[in-house]
Prior knowledge:
Helix content: under 10%
Oligomer: single chain
Structural class: mainly beta
Amino acid sequence: QVQLVESGGGLVQPVGSLTLSCVVSGSIFSESAMGWYRQRPGDPRLLVAGITSSGRSNTADSVKGRFTISRDNAKNTMSLQMNSLKPEDTAVYYCNLVPPRTGWGQGAQVIVSS
């Protein structure tokens, strides 16, 4: 059974930075594409950044050039470095496989506000 634990959320001012972390239990991590999803109030949960098992990454247009996804297969961890944050980045951020095939963690709340 795969478990996902996100951390690193918080309150940050516009144009600030924040790094989210995800710890994944289970042997599936190193062979799976992973991603960061976010859900803004009233909106569906959307994929904002993905990374293959070999490390090739891609980001949604809305965060391109500002967010960087990375992973450490040896430690079963994944990170999302978020720079130049905007108020519209306010959301709960989740990690999961791409496409998601397991239950969701509790997420990491990110609030971008002055």
